[in-house]
Amino acid sequence: MFDRITLRSDLSDCHGQLLARRGAVVSTEGIREAALSARPGPTRLLAETFLADDVALPLGDHGYRYLFRSPQAQAAVARVLLAVELPDVLYDELAAVKATDPARHQHALATAAVASRMLAVAAGESRVPPQVAAAALLHDLGMRHLPARLVRGGEPLRGGEALEMAEHPFLGAWHLARVLGPHPAVDAALSHHWRNGQGYPDLPRRPTRTVEVVAVASAFAALTQSRAYRSDPFDPRGAVDLLVAEAGAERIDAYGVKLLVHALRGGQGEVRVLRFGRSRHGTEPAVNHYTPIAAPARGFL
Fold this sequence. Notes:
Blueprint: E1 4-6, E2 11-12, E3 18-20, E4 25-27, H1 28-37, E5 44-45, H2 51-54, H3 56-59, H4 71-82, E6 85-86, H5 88-100, H6 102-123, H7 130-138, H8 148-151, H9 160-165, H10 168-180, H11 184-191, H12 209-223, H13 236-248, H14 254-264
């Protein structure tokens, strides 16, 4: 089972504070224990940080025009994101991501905005917890701990590179558990590539529905944004076509994909009666070197 890794190097935050030493075993159970023993510090509102100005970026992105089609929808999502509360050390991490990997920063913002919109059309704005928006914002933090050649490379992953990439959910979840304690962000970091058990890592139980929403939002955001390994982004319809196919193959949560389609249609009607079509009319990139990563057979011990 791929439920643990052995750290290849010391794991530190952006200030050099040690989080775990090289050779330490990071497991799903260990992450839970780290969260339970953590002592979270003071927090402050995202509205009081540098991110306040960045909230508008995904809301005005042409690729997301169907999700945020009205000023009311944009304002509702902005209110959720601005109400996020995190400790300063995590705002510093997000600032480091923005400075060193702007594409990853845009991905975090887009995932948070898309997930918030999906939940708002399902349950109403007042029932979208800012903690879930925070989870979406932080879900890919583990990528900051990977070598730049993996994060920003444009070539297909080869040999052990795919396995090294598959470690990032453990790295992000451990980091967040140490800082936040039990929090949806820890679960989102660990679970966003789980893909109905066909992805990674192996989990002791199925993720919560809200964490599955974050995973679908992350996939949609990744498909519709520029990446070094493909010539162009998918257009929104092309991204949905691919996610619908993945849901049909049980490689992603079908309800989450339905919720995304529901939000793209403006949130009219009921999600439960929505049915996926079979025809595909979206646009895909002409060149795509994306490397699917299968779950390793066992943990790296």
